[in-house]
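Researcher: Go.
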Amino acid sequence: MSQYPLRLPESLMRATKRAAKADKTSINQFIITAIAEKVAALETEDMLGQRAMLADKDAFLALLDNVNEK
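Model: Structure:
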């Protein structure tokens, strides 16, 4: 496990403490979860962007036309 000295503005630390308490978790676990969620969202966005580049727009539109006809 790595350690990183995190400096937060006081207002953000107070909000983090409230959120962690409401979530019934430690501040440390709350911050770890928040970072993991953000990283997952960014990685998902990248992956979807890469897959979108491979898409065949004409084939997709033809498929939609086929669905609409039924």
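Model: The longest helix spans residues 27-53.
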